[in-house]
Amino acid sequence: MYDYAIRFEEDNEPGVAVFCRDLPQLNSYGDNRDHAISEALDAIETTLSIYVDERRAIPAASAPLAGEHVVHLPAVTVAKIALWNAMMERDMRKADLCRLLGVHQAQGDRLVDFLHTSKMEQLENALAALGKRLSVSVEAA
User: Fold this and answer.
1) CA 114, 39, 115: angle at the middle one, nearest 5?
2) pLDDT number for residue 14
3) What residue spans of the chain are helical by DSSP H?
4) What is the strand order of the sheet 16-19 is part of?
5) Residue 10 — pLDDT band, cuts 50, 70, 90?
6) Distance in angstroms (rounded) separating the CA atoms of residues 18 and 115
7) Considering only Cβ atoms within 10 Å of each terminal Cβ, which end of the chain, N or C, has fewer?
8) Among 117, 116, 87, 115, which residue's Cα sits nearest to residue 101?
9) 110-133: b or e for each residue (b if 16 or more CB lie within 10 Å)?
10) Can you tell me the distance from the alpha carbon of 127 to that of 104, in angstroms, rounded to the nearest whole number?
């Protein structure tokens, strides 16, 4: 659902640019294709932060096209996306989440900060408070 496909563009200059159809604000770069892939996760999480700053729902990933590379997000990032989108469905602000959970502002902010690691238990509790349940599955790599 949130495994975003990225595409690469190479020019006459050294290096590889990275773009994502589902996240048009995403711009990243690598010295070569492998380096660009390794930088893509950080670029995606940074782009997701833009959605939070702009109070916009985060779009689901569309199916990859030929030639695109799929970036599989960490489970904690997917849980944060689910939490943020559940908040957007209810027109909630971060302060509303903090009041609902009875936590300080900094704790609530971290739950939807894609550049900060959160504990899965905290995300599960926050999702439960919004009537959501986190489900994890394992598949072959």
Assistant:
1) 15
2) 83
3) 33-53, 75-89, 94-101, 105-111, 120-129
4) 28-30, 16-19, 4-10, 69-71
5) confident
6) 19
7) C
8) 87
9) bbbbbeeebeeebbbebbeebebe
10) 17
Name the token pair of 33: 């294709």
Exposed/middle/buried for 12, CB within 10 Å: 0-12, 13-18, 19+? Answer: exposed
The pTM of this model reads: 0.92
| 73-102 burial: b if 16+ Cβ within 10 Å, else e | beebbbbbbbbbbbbeeeebebeebbeebe
Going by C-beta distance under 8 Å and a sequence separation of 6 or more, which residues neighbour residue 57? 51, 84, 85, 88, 89
Residues in the chain: 141
Distance CA 78, CA 31 (A): 28
User: Which two three-digit tokens encode residue 19?
Assistant: 């773009």
| pLDDT per position as a tens digit, 76-107 | 999 999 999 999 999 999 999 999 999 999 99
Q: Residue 40 is which amino acid?
A: A
